[in-house]
Amino acid sequence: MSANMGCSHCRQRVTKVVTKMNGLLDYMVDFGKKEVTVRGTVIH
Questions:
Q1: Domain extent listing, the chain
Q2: A single Pfam family, by name (predicted)?
Q3: What is the pLDDT of residues 8-44, one digit of tens each?
């Protein structure tokens, strides 16, 4: 996923989208690196 994570609204949006993924077991958002790491069987 590619997304702007520069402002607090954008960060909230990224977190909201990630938490809605089916099959998600765990996730980690690193705003400094602009990375989202997901764990599970995610179907898109």
A1: 8-40
A2: HMA
A3: 888 888 889 888 988 999 999 888 888 888 899 867 6
